[in-house]
Amino acid sequence: MNEASEATPFSPPSTPNFRWPVRVYYEDTDAGGVVYHANYLRFMERARSERLRGLGFELDDLGRDPGILFVVRSLEIDFLRPARFNDRLWVTADLDRIRSASIHFRQAVVRSEDEVLCEARVRVVCLSAESFRPRAVPDVILQRLNGH
């Protein structure tokens, strides 16, 4: 696990501006000693998962009841500065827009408040775990997301 040494996130998962700590390990870097570009997506996935966990939703439980999955439908990412081995980072997962069958996030990986390393817009869609067809985000999830 690549989370920073703190046991809790910088801000609680239920707050509008969510941050999750990540420490860069050697395995996250490429031959040039910087974080390999695909690993930023892994860091962002963790932050989105932890945001939902903080609202009381475990992804594996959602797959069983009510039988849904959240999958990335699209993303746009800008790499601005490199992260390096042993850096302590924060990954944000802020809600941008909520639709009936999708959740749009604004995400960033930052080294400090004023040093943004990459930014992304990520759209996840809700699918039936059985058919992999789109379906509406359950009301209980929408209510908790909209309440924060």
Q: What does this 3D model show about the protein?
A:
- The protein has helices at residues 37-54, 59-64, 139-146, and strands spanning 19-23, 68-79, 88-92, 94-98, 102-112, 115-128.
- By secondary structure, the chain is an alpha+beta fold.
- It has a single domain, classed as Roll (Thiol Ester Dehydrase, Chain A).
- Strands 1, 2, 3, 4, 5 and 6 form a 6-stranded antiparallel β-sheet that branches.
- A hairpin with a 3-residue loop joins β4 and β5.
- It is elongated and about 45 Å long.
Mean pLDDT: 90
What is the count of DSSP helices, taking H or I runs of 4+ residues? 3
CATH architecture group name: Roll
Percent helix range = 10-25%
The CATH class label is: Alpha Beta
Q: Based on DSSP secondary structure assignment, what is the total number of beta strands? A: 6
Counted up, domains total 1
Instruction: Give the CA-CA distance, first to last residue.
Output: 27 Å
Derived structural class: alpha+beta
Q: Radius of gyration over alpha carbons?
A: 15 Å
The biggest sheet, with number of strands, parallel, antiparallel or mixed sense and barrel status, is: 6 strands, antiparallel
In N-to-C order, the SSE pattern is EHHEEEEEH
Q: What's the CATH H-level superfamily name?
A: Hotdog Thioesterase
Flag low-confidence runs: 1-14
Strand content: 35-45%
CATH topology name = Thiol Ester Dehydrase, Chain A
Task: Report the principal-axis shape.
Answer: elongated
